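step 4 of 6: structure.
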Amino acid sequence: MRNDISQATIERLPLYLRTLGFAEAEGTEIISSDEFGRRLNITPEQIRKDLASFGQFGKKGVGYYVTELKNRIAKILGFENNWNVAIVGMGHLGDALAHYKKIPELNFNLVALFDNDKARIGKKVNGLEVSDVADLKKVLAERNIQIVIIAVPTEEAQDTVDALEGTTVRGIWNFAPINVKAPKGIRIVHEDLTVGLGSLSYHISQSWNPEN
Amino acid sequence: MRNDISQATIERLPLYLRTLGFAEAEGTEIISSDEFGRRLNITPEQIRKDLASFGQFGKKGVGYYVTELKNRIAKILGFENNWNVAIVGMGHLGDALAHYKKIPELNFNLVALFDNDKARIGKKVNGLEVSDVADLKKVLAERNIQIVIIAVPTEEAQDTVDALEGTTVRGIWNFAPINVKAPKGIRIVHEDLTVGLGSLSYHISQSWNPEN
DNA sequence: TAGATTGTTAATCGATTAACAATC
DNA sequence: TAGATTGTTAATCGATTAACAATC
């Protein structure tokens, strides 16, 4: 695979995948970049350009075959790897993520949950038993876990991440609102909800002011 | 306020705010763009440029006063408006959001919860009673709600959003993985978790492949 | 004053949009 | 074939980075 793909392009792929899923469910077999763009509020040129950076997926004069394109995007995003996933921190957010349907739908295997609270350890959440975070390294190795979701309190986030050094883990999805530094060789994505909330607040504040 | 602020800049403001909060908690009174950048992995030029688009907040040869800058950014983001917020859909995600500490910390008032499930209506979540979504319009008006968080299943998301037309609501924070269209005059922010998860999967897949 | 650091203008870089030839 | 739509190159736009004068 080429390596000159922009982050902006990568972040649109999940949206494309989702739209193709809806189209497929409706029985649509072929979709043009025009129709595609209409559904997503993205220009057709943008979509064609994004897709073209991975190869030639469409048929000129026809459009894109929905199921085929869907499968190819899923593959590009690495969803065919069937990553094994763990959640650390089984508070309200960890609990919600343990029930998040998109995780299995996108072929991730949720195989471990961790907490440091005796009251939670041993309990089952969505059919999966909560492990003691003291056994983190052991369980990560046993279950060959590549992705860890951080759902611990802010103060514990950096220590939790540090503990992943030298394990099977290759990626971290961080929900703690702090810019934790990942160990070498581990990729981190910060899922900062305050960004969306702040952006929303900013824009609705603006629409109240003078000019608008 | 000027109106030529890029979305990229706006989305960095919550990160700046967070960093200033940590700095303040440590007792740091003044911070330079250099130190600021180091903490966030953002170039100091970027930070100065972002801030400069809202006015002159720093002192040449000195830096930025932490508390003052923090207050000004909070104001720019509209957090001084003390928005009244409701959550629609009290499943696992709605429950997690009802406990999300950043909401009160950023001066949002969570004042209503809604569900359509009789088993949940009337129960208290984090001290707040769950209302029947059938009373949506009534409660929105009574409690003067400006922001609604959508945490309902995908199939119900568009109908829920449509029901907000002509109410006090000015902004929607949508967690349903679908590109719902907002009624006229209502701002919408899509919080799509599959984007972060897809990006993470993509990057760790890449680091396994040929060249890397 | 000398040193440090901002605010701002200019240069560069990258992403989006437009245009169109290729081709189904 | 004629019409439609992709894939790709060129043009434009916008955001980031670099440089430096202003000034604390």
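step 5 of 6: annotate
 - Chain A has two domains: 7-79, 82-195.
 - Chain A touches chain B through 65 residues (CB under 8 Å).
step 6 of 6: archive
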